Amino acid sequence: MMPSLAVARTEVPTGIVAIPVRTRLVRSGDDLVSLVADAVAGIARPGDVLAVSETAVAIAQGEFVVAEHIRPSKLAYVLSRRAGALATINQPESLQLVIDAVGPWKVAYAAAMHVFGRLRGKRGAFYEIMGEAITAIDGYTGTLPPYERAIVLAPREPDEFSQAVADRTGCGCTVVDANDLEKAKVLGASRDVNRGVVEKALLDNPHGNGDEQTPIVVLKWRGEGLNPLWQ
Known about the structure:
Blueprint (H helix, E strand, L loop, with lengths): L4 E2 L9 E6 L10 H9 L8 E5 H7 L3 E3 L7 H7 L11 H11 L1 H16 L5 H6 L1 H4 L1 E2 L11 E4 L4 H12 L2 E8 L3 E7 L5 H7 L14 E6 L10
Parallel strand pairs: 3-7
Antiparallel strand pairs: 1-2, 2-9, 3-9, 4-6, 5-6, 7-8
């Protein structure tokens, strides 16, 4: 377990603390509810909210594809070369999964509208049109070994998983997609958790984005008044 980190952001009430919790390597088929409960025992208390990495949940559910098992099309190669360096779709294998999900014509249309939008000073049209087809995929760069060549998909039923963890631990639980670009999104949560506050508390990504192996963050309220982590 890493030391607790006071969340120092103007968007977040002063008094929220984030504690990253290290676990063993998560594997496909793991009982992740039990793994999380065991990892936070003695750390988390009722009133705390757990933030579990969506990558860990997806891997435990077997929701990933090894890049070598994908054969990118010419369209995937052409478009991926024009994506930004930090974009998931700059990997032809990842983009091919998107093409398989929505069809090549929709991807080609989204790419054309993206170019048209850029000419008019608008950015992000491709991502707006593709929506969940893009956000459901994590590229293989940066994923902890032995999954560094695995493309991780969206976890199944994140609300149900979160509620199962909450019932087991007595704490709130969320499944979160966070990164080092100051973006965090709650994909699922147990009842009565304040999703907006959790997202803002994780903008600095206390999970880490490398080999920290801390897929769980315990959020605690040490301020005065009502706990803002709860609705």
